[in-house]
Amino acid sequence: MPSTQAGFKKGTASASPADLLAKLGPTVLVDIGLKSAAPAGAPPDLARKGIRALIDTGAGGDCIDDQFARELGLPVTDQGEISGVGGRHDAVVYLARLFVPSMNRLLFQPFTGVRLTEGGQWHRVLLGRSFLRQNRMLYNGATGQVFIGV
Amino acid sequence: MKEPSLRDDIAAFARMRRDLERDHDQEWVVFFRGEFVEAFPDFESAAAAAVERFDVGPYLIRQIGAAPVQLSGGMIFTPAHALDASRF
């Protein structure tokens, strides 16, 4: 399985790579949709490409922005309730394919809908610990680099 | 024909819950138009079958006996079928 960089190689005028990693967190670009338009054997061709996904080691499950999921027309496959520091609210579960081109890795799984856009979040997808189940992740806060590989 | 509804699927699941827990513990089940379709050993095969047969649904795909899911920032997602049990 190929490895990928989930940190920041370049900074901005006002922020170093280490600053960006501290502010935004480990991030990979993913493609997402329900069905691939690619022929069998070719890399998946999903509806939306280059979507920012946060590698969230504080989470067990994976999430997708509610508004984004609706725009994509993803099927709703269950419902339930999210509880936490913000109280309780209803939530639904979406079905999606998610492809990480830099790792040549395809997921086909449920994603809990959360309000990332509404909350002004930079990411549209959150990938929890299950994403790293087969991987090694090296986080270097001093340089802003994050390696994910085997 | 009546429009497919996740509410109907969830109601059907609730009616069959005891039988499903007895016969399909930890398996993934699919419901469509308020009827049990099939049980699968894993999520991928359940989802692939649901998309192939029912396109974008809606349909219910649920693991029997699934526990709540820990999400980002200390949030917990509790599936609807586990809510009653967790409140009493």
Care to give the gist of this entry?
Chain A has 150 residues and is mainly β. Chain A has helices at 17-24, 66-72, and strands spanning 4-5, 27-33, 48-55, 63-65, 76-84, 87-100, 105-114, 125-127, 136-140, 145-149. In chain A, the strands form two sheets. A six-stranded mixed β-barrel of chain A has the order 2-3-8-4-7-6. A three-stranded antiparallel beta sheet of chain A has the order 1-10-9.
Structural account:
The complex is a heterodimer of chains A (150) and B (88). Chain A has one domain (24-35, 45-138): Beta Barrel (Cathepsin D, subunit A, domain 1). Chain A is 10% helix and 44% strand. Chain A has 2 helices and 10 strands, in the order βαβββαββββββ. Chain A has helices at 17-24, 66-72, and strands spanning 4-5, 27-33, 48-55, 63-65, 76-84, 87-100, 105-114, 125-127, 136-140, 145-149. In chain A, the strands form 2 sheets. In chain A, strands 2-3-8-4-7-6 form a 6-stranded mixed barrel. Chain A is globular and about 40 Å long. Chain A starts with a strand and ends with a strand. The model of chain A has no long low-confidence stretch (mean pLDDT 93). Chain B has 3 helices and 5 strands. In chain B, the strands form 2 sheets. A 3-stranded antiparallel β-sheet of chain B has the order 2-1-3. In chain B, strand 4 and strand 5 form a beta hairpin. Chain B is globular and about 40 Å long. The model of chain B has no long low-confidence stretch (mean pLDDT 87). The A-B interface holds A 34-35, 56, 58-61, 63, 73-86, 91, 93, 95, 108-110, 112, 114, 126, 128 and B 6, 10, 43-44, 47-48, 50-51, 56-62, 69-80, 82-83.
